[in-house]
Amino acid sequence: MKLSGLLHRSRTELPGLTGVARVDRRTDGLLRRVKPGEIAVLDQIDLDRATADALVAADVAAVINVSPSISGRFPNLGPEVLVAAGIMIVDNVGPEAMHAIKDGSRIRLLDGVVYAGELRLAEGVLQDADSVADALVEAKSGLTHQLEAFAANTIEFMRQERGLLLDGAGVPQVDVVLTGRQVLVVAAGFDAAAELARLKNYIREYRPVLVGAGAGADVLMAAGHTPALIVGDPAEVSNEALTCGADIVVPAFADGHAPGLHRVQDLGAGAVTFPSTANPEDLALLLAAHHDAALVVTVGLSANMAEFLDRGRAGSNASTFLTRLQLGGTLVDSRVIATLYRSRISTGAILLLIGAAVVAVLAALLVSDAGDAILAWVSTSWAALVETIKGWFV
Fold it and tell me: Any idea which fold 161-340 has?
């Protein structure tokens, strides 16, 4: 008997959740590399819902966070999403875990402790539904400070970008006609794909201009639509979307430098720059507003205060309030459209039309020679059927 076989049978299975560790300080890089069943090791204070949704979609077995997933600054949405999906969270294991846990190594989680075999690597807090709910309740007390920061950043944005907001200074010209058109702006937000699917009839009937904000362009492509306009950092967009023929608008700094523009040029596509500190979603909305779009429908954009504050992006959301104020009543969330939208030709009207056509055909047959023949055939067939049924009971 081989010694290796004997050793294999004598080894006992250690308790806990076991999986391959995928370690990366850059969350975007981690999400691109992690595979189903692996354990994601990241460093993100106040884990946001967008990251949590991506981890759920990647079907990870567990998440180890170097930082607190809920710091108490505000009630962020990520941990609740992970717990609801049944994904284990070992929280606040400390920065040394990034060095102790090797990328690609096999690790084991038990009661908040991270092991490599029987070697203890790090220890954190094992989160569950109750602990997450309690932490979120406590975090609501931090909303006041976050709202103050949001307001301060909004005022600073207004000072820096008043020319853009008031006069459209710096808004680029695009080949896509937006004036008087309905515009659908899609971002890669929570449940964006499902929201887009609910708008299928609206898109088919009204043919709105499809605009992808950042990775929202890929959401459109995945749903079988081709964006007419893409606004955002090309690093967030796939090559397929960048080369689909859409007009591309790349955010730029005040000095005109646009990170990521070279990627578009390397692909042989053209692009224009949009100098502003606003986020890509708001730039897409400002484009529609200053080009006099008739209606702007949003998919996957932040729709409430919790989503605005999620991940603590008060600085990047400084443009959000003023942008929506600029659009006013022309801005509509897709969930409203999906709830209220009805096709111009309803199902009831179609059924009524078919019924009327059937009645008209029958009436025509009844007053013609063909109608007499049909009635005679129906009468003969009915009589034969009755006689057959009688024969069954004799």
Answer: Rossmann fold (3.40.50)
